[in-house]
Structure formats: structure tokens, C-alpha cells
Protein: DUF2862 domain-containing protein
Organism: Leptolyngbya iicbica LK
Amino acid sequence: MALEIGQQVKVLRLRDRVSPDVAERLGKTGVIRQFRMVDGSGVGVVVEFDGNYSTWFFEDELSPVQ
């Protein structure tokens, strides 16, 4: 799956326990704003949702919206 900045994505699942604010985004659609390194080797995807709320996800938690 090739994700790109500016692409719309849907949150499919959450790997770990998360805050209620993040859990509310499950099944929601947002826009990729940037990529970031996580835990020294993985890549996280920063997604912005309506209301200017943004947080990061692992790539396998997201699916491109077509």
C-alpha cells in the first residue's frame, strides 16, 4: 500500500490501547499530512481530521479512500 501526503485515508483498526480522542477516529476519514519515524525503525503517518485534530497511526491501521 503506497500512502502519500495529501491522500485521504480511513482508520481501519488500532494496534494498541489509545486515548478516547484517538479511539473516536476509528472508521473515520482524514488526510495524510506527514510521515514520522516511530520507535526507531517504523514509520508513522500523521492524519488530520475535521476540526484540525491530528494524530499518528501505523501504516497498517489505514486504508486509502477512493
